[in-house]
Design goal:
369 residues
């Protein structure tokens, strides 16, 4: 695992675009685990390592998503990151079903020796681990993988479909790559945790989520299908939505910076997303730069956050607010600090307007110049 972690650090340091970073993760980091994974079970603490790796590759605020969620962001047309635990299990199942042979006989022979040598009090049904061994033998790992036992420890109810897929493969009924089929099967067994996650985040952000589709079934094919809304918008728009819904803006409070800032636009409020979704300065600038009717100034916070009434115009305005805030924080730190110390935010607002116009041009949504 050490080499995998080193590769993740190297990829994160490149600051590559997210799709390219995900491709590097698959080819440079994940691939180093494949050889050992054919005969060894995944490590017990893998889930924690998976989450840390995803946060680094995708440059996410800590604990924005659960481990199950962060590897399913493609459900919202976000970056597709291959999940290590799926890859590791699919490697061993492929080795057991396609590459290696004779392991079941070796496992049964070892099991007989264990039964003969172990005291009855230490004997567990089906155990083939001699006294003093730290882990199961390689032949036992392959045997249990072939039976779907190891997979069912991580993926609920995996045993029956795994055995069925292996049987179909051996009968020549599986077309295409067998390991890819195993990976697809295991992914379907990962529970959907987005509704519960978003509900908790919306409570933190003081968003009235009501009957939002985000709390029902936020996957492709649902009423919240974003595919027809995203093509005219910038490529990074899905991550803007996901970082908003998960309370993942990189504010000083969210990133636990040593010195938390106040609102960078001059409000008497904290530098956090809960405030920026209702910040009058920010949203007045956004609405003013777009060709909006005066009624839009009464827009609700759930609509601003694209929790309700998800349409192209609302997404474009949120994208501009999100991108302008982060550009100011990253590129104009001195300007912000000077404004906070002098309590004069005129130049910050001027720069904000320029950035909204700049990012608004990318959205093709009729920004007023």
């Amino acid at each position: 695992m050490n080499k995998f972690i080193e590769r993740v650090e190297e990829i994160a340091q490149t600051r590559a675009p997210l799709e390219y970073a995900c491709a590097l993760f698959k080819s440079k980091a994940l691939s180093v685990l494949g050889y050992v994974a054919q005969i060894c079970k995944p490590p017990k603490a893998l889930k924690v390592t998976e989450l840390r790796a995803a946060n680094k590759i995708l440059r996410l605020a800590t604990n924005s998503f659960t481990t199950n969620c962060v590897y399913q962001l493609d459900a919202f047309h976000g970056p597709k990151l291959e999940r290590p635990v799926v890859f590791l299990h699919s490697c061993m199942i492929r080795a057991a079903a396609k590459t290696l042979a004779g392991f079941s006989q070796q496992h049964l022979a070892l099991q007989e020796k264990v039964i003969d040598s172990l005291p009855l009090a230490h004997l567990f049904p089906g155990s083939a681990k001699p006294e003093g061994w730290d882990s199961e033998a390689f032949c036992s790992n392959l045997h249990y993988a072939y039976l779907g036992v190891h997979s069912s420890e991580t993926f609920p109810n995996a045993r029956t479909p795994i055995c069925s897929l292996i049987r179909d493969f051996q009968l020549g009924r599986v077309k295409g790559g067998f390991q890819a089929k195993v990976s697809m099967l295991l992914k379907t067994l990962i529970p959907n945790e987005f509704p519960r996650l978003f509900r908790r985040r919306f409570e933190t952000l003081e968003i009235d989520c009501g009957d939002s589709q985000l709390l029902v079934m936020p996957v492709r094919g649902s009423p919240l299908e974003l595919k027809h809304l995203l093509p005219p918008l910038p490529h990074s728009t899905p991550m803007c939505l996901l970082r908003t819904w998960s309370n993942g803006w990189c504010t000083s409070n969210r990133m636990h910076e040593p010195k938390a800032l106040p609102c960078i636009f001059g409000c008497e409020a904290d530098d956090d997303l809960c405030h920026y979704l209702k910040c009058e300065v920010l949203w007045t600038c956004v609405y003013s730069c777009f060709k909006c009717n005066t009624s839009i100034f009464m827009q609700s916070i759930p609509e601003r956050a694209c929790v309700h009434n998800v349409n192209m115009s609302n997404i474009a305005r949120l994208y501009c607010a999100y991108s302008s805030y982060h550009a100011l924080r990253k590129l104009h730190t001195d300007l912000i600090l000077d404004a906070i110390s002098s309590e004069d935010f005129e130049h910050v607002v001027e720069e904000l307007l320029s950035l909204i116009i700049l990012f608004g041009a990318d959205t093709n949504r009729g920004v007023a110049f």
